[in-house]
Specification:
This protein has 263 residues and is α/β, with parallel strands linked by helices. The chain is built from eleven helices and eight strands.
Length: 263
């Protein structure tokens, strides 16, 4: 909890909280008395006009979420967008962020990362998403809930193979903080070995796919094709991509078909 965050909570008129009970305990701990209103994933759309009405009346509002950052895989994105559209100033107050916290201690060699957030809850959708992410040369950062973490790790293993390195981070900055790094082949066994390892809020970080020279050329060819396919018929896009990248026409044609979702 930063000094700036405390100053903001003391200065505002109203606090919009994901769970007013949790936020009330936080405010009581610091001796802060404020009007609390609930704003969570189930009522955010309905609450946005009420918050805007408070702002229109000249009141200041702080938005807080329980164990994360508002609007980052947490409620608040709709409210922030509506407030900006209505001309109100939205001021971010930095705090702990699980994704960046986990990355800073993960020890990964990949210099770039992609923050995905929560994977789909349905197994079929989750597997489709992972198939699309499989060849990206970036560390992949996921949030996961305790009741889905075993299934998600199993699906990561199936999609990315035995050797890819995963970091399992749990309950970061809290009493039972745990970080464990291993190959994907070992991850399911590790998390199932102890029931306590399946409790809490998770960040899963998967090391990026090693990129060879051929891999770099393929990534570049895909980028060129994506731009051309957005403007041109497939055959014409392939002809131009061949001239631009120097790649083999048959390979680029096959790649273009995959990008277009054609057999």
């Amino acid at each position: 909890m930063s000094l700036r965050a405390l100053d903001v909570l003391k200065s505002v008129d109203t606090v919009a909280a994901e769970d007013t009970r949790i936020t009330a305990r936080l405010l009581n701990h610091y001796g802060i008395a404020k009007q609390l209103i609930a704003l969570h994933e189930h009522n955010e759309k309905r609450m946005v006009p009420q918050v805007l009405a408070l702002l229109a009346a000249g009141r200041s509002v702080a938005l807080v979420s329980d164990a994360g950052t508002p609007a980052i895989s947490d409620p608040g994105a709709q409210l922030v967008a509506a407030a900006i559209a209505a001309g109100y100033r939205v001021t971010p107050v930095p705090g702990a962020n699980a994704a960046v916290t986990a990355l800073s201690a993960a020890g990964l060699a990949t210099p770039r990362f992609l923050f995905y957030g929560f994977l789909p809850a349905r197994a079929a959708e989750r597997k489709r998403e992972l198939a699309e992410l499989r060849n990206l040369p970036y560390a992949l950062v996921f949030f996961e809930a305790p009741h889905r973490v075993v299934d998600s790790i199993a699906d990561l293993h199936a999609a990315f193979g035995d050797a890819r390195r995963i970091v399992i981070a749990r309950e970061l900055t809290k009493m039972f903080e745990t970080m464990h790094a291993c190959a994907l082949a070992e991850a399911t066994g590790w998390i199932e070995a102890n029931a306590d390892r399946r409790k809490g809020e998770f960040v899963l970080i998967l090391d990026g796919r090693p990129v060879t020279r051929d891999g770099e050329e393929q990534v570049q060819a895909q980028r060129v094709l994506e731009v051309l396919l957005a403007e041109l018929p497939l055959r014409q896009a392939v002809v131009l991509a061949t001239k631009i990248t120097g790649g083999k026409r048959n390979e680029l044609y096959d790649l273009a078909l995959r990008l277009k979702g054609e057999p």
